Amino acid sequence: MAFLHFHAINFRPLILAISILLALINILEALEVGGKESGGNHEIFKEILRDEAVLRLQQLGKVSDREGYLERTFLSPASLRAADLIISWMHDAGLKTWIDKMGNIHGRTESITPSPMALLIGSHMDTVVDAGMYDGTLGIICAISAVKALKMSGKLEKLQRPIEVIAFSDEEGIRFQSTFLGSAAIAGILPTSILQVSDKSGFTLQDVLKENSVEATDEILSQVRYNSESVWGYIEVHIEQGPVLETLNYPLGVVKGIAGQTRLKVTVSGTQGHAGTVPMLLRQDPMVASADLIVTLESLCRNPDKYLKTDDLHNSFDFAGLVCTVGELFCWPSASNVIPGQVNFTVDIRAMDDKAKEAIVSEFSKQISEKCDGRLVNCAVEQKHSAEATHCDKELRSQLKNAADSSIRQLSSDVLGEMPVLMSGAGHDAMAMAKLTKIGMLFVRCRGGISHSPDEFVMEDDVWAAGLALVRFLEQHVDDQ
């Protein structure tokens, strides 16, 4: 039988060669990742700015106070659960977090050199009734994702100024019928009288804050307020809530300004009675009077020239973007066989020209008085909210435009034409923050221009584009030395 003889083989040169090869592979991978972070394919940014951001939007979209649809109002149980998620994501991005006395969530990172002036980025975490999952929350998630992307690329600690992400507690004004509770408190324009306003259940804002261990006083509101010397500027990313960007086939647009807005509550009081026994000629029916007023409002806003006298003042009005809406109507006692005794309805009037808006408010108030007198009912008009048109800062607008344009062209070669510059017909937290500091806004395309609806939708790549635009904007504030 033949035996095989094995000789000792020296494997050291082979092992050394493999080690060198592996080291070279690691170096090449590191260079590739670095390229992706600094201007290549941005695959690491894609994971954070698109995939993770979309997943987080979906998670927040399920946090609701109602079964079957999305509703999350000021300091409701769902808003507290949402706050826990947002805080965990802020920690993940490397931010130091806290919640202020008005329920606003803050996440902050300091700059490479001590600076007293911070850049604030934010939007709101509350929703309307039967809401979509992008309004407000898109701006919060994009901001957190952008900070996380900077952290992953090693640039977060090189920022020239502190960055603070804020999730505002209330913008929509659903619970207390007063918008911008969170941002107005930070801007220092929230009146203390708001503490005594009640929700539909009879709880005042002060009661709700007390339930959350906050003794709401003038002093508390002053603690929430920011000093203008501590803020460099404010940026907000938000869905467009309109069809312009989709029509132009552009994922992002820079905002030039925000329309002024006035909200009214109209109370019409008549005589409650039996639906079958009170003759039509003897009725003082507040429902019919309200219907007349609502139709009059529509006619006024469609054809203001029909109502307003032509004179030198009128000729200076610009009614571009004028819109009027009755969004809520309640009657008492609300029974099919009872002539109601009282009807309440809301009025929302918006315009780019503040003078035009005030002229419409004044004329509608006049129409209310005349028509209610004619129908022998009593009417009262209460102004619940008023905000002047707001203009975005030219410097921030230019920086956002450059950042957005750069991001879009990196992600797609199909985009043609100039970056759209839009006016916003919707109110945003930026309106309140403009009382504190300069502001800039970036709009994101939404399908069909639909918002305040479960049909609200933003494409995943547009979420990515918005996040990347914020990254590029923040990189303009990084110290490369």
Which labels suit this protein?
481 residues, alpha+beta, nine-stranded mixed beta sheet, 15 helices, disordered N terminus
Can you offer a commentary on this structure?
This protein has 481 residues and is of the alpha+beta class. It contains 15 helices and 16 strands. The protein has helices at 12-38, 43-60, 77-92, 137-152, 181-187, 205-211, 218-224, 244-248, 286-302, 304-307, 312-315, 354-374, 394-411, 429-433, 460-475, and strands spanning 96-99, 105-109, 118-124, 163-168, 231-239, 252-258, 260-269, 273-274, 323-325, 329-332, 338-339, 342-351, 378-387, 390-391, 421-424, 439-444. Strands 1, 2, 3, 4, 5, 6, 14, 15 and 16 form a 9-stranded mixed β-sheet that branches. Strands 7, 9, 10, 12 and 13 form a 5-stranded antiparallel β-sheet that branches. Strand 1 (96-99) and strand 2 (105-109) form a beta hairpin. Helix 2 packs antiparallel against helix 4. The longest helix is centred in the N-terminal third of the chain and has 27 residues, at 12-38. The termini are far apart.
In short:
With 481 residues, this protein is of the alpha+beta class. It has helices at residues 12-38, 43-60, 77-92, 137-152, 181-187, 205-211, 218-224, 244-248, 286-302, 304-307, 312-315, 354-374, 394-411, 429-433, 460-475, and strands spanning 96-99, 105-109, 118-124, 163-168, 231-239, 252-258, 260-269, 273-274, 323-325, 329-332, 338-339, 342-351, 378-387, 390-391, 421-424, 439-444.
